[in-house]
Write a structure and sequence with these properties.
By secondary structure, the protein is an all-beta fold. It has a domain at about 35-80 and about 105-165 and about 175-220. It has strands at about 35-40, 50-65, 75-80, 80-90, 95-105, 105-110, 120-130, 135-145, 150-155, 160-165, 175-180, 190-195, 210-220. The strands form two sheets. Strands 1, 2, 3, 6, 7, 8, 9, 12 and 13 form a nine-stranded antiparallel β-sheet that branches. A hairpin with a 4-residue loop joins strand 7 (about 120-130) and strand 8. The N and C termini lie close together (about 5 Å).
Amino acid sequence: MRRTLLALAVGAALVSSFVLPQTGSGADPGGGGCQLAGSAAFTPNGPGATDTFSYSVNAQLTGCQSNIAGAPTAGTLAVGQHVVETVTIQTPTGPQQVQATYAEPLATGAGAVPGNSCAAGSTAGTGVVTWGDNSTTVVSYTTNSVGPAVPLQGTVAPSMTLTLVSGPAGSPATFTISSTNPLYPAGDGAAGVVAFTTSDPTPCTTAAGLSSVDLQGFVGIGATS
């Protein structure tokens, strides 16, 4: 029996078909999934006349459908974002809870240079989906561009490690986000198709490359048993 692939916008199918505005494409994830809509930002450079780049993603997951009872119907997807977390530090008067800012790891990509990396390439990263009940699903993924629609494949990971950006003295150097949604345990697979769109592909011919793109698609997560 196949367990419905629910939605997990593995944040990212990111990068590679950012050349011309495209229409979002869908893939059948085995009976269920979510619509993905959001944006990707590139730093320090984007797809263009250099062979490597990094990016972050901020997206919404909506219209999620699943045959698993109690499955979430919506969520958010984040890759490479800064988040505020509550952590414990040691003070002269004892342990104290404080807030500190941590950075999720950026995703990375490599393109087909000479030429430009907007036309074709591959990416890899880790995204975290936060569902409506505040449970989380961490997904490690890869993408390979084969045309306007970018297919992605991934696996639910046990956790993701973030690095300290700022916080009170004594804040831990790292923070761990774990996969906590029991319906999508570590080892489940993820798949999807995402289209990247831009109104101005001209930066694809420059070293700075694109600064951002819009993204739309359909993604799912689940397992066969």
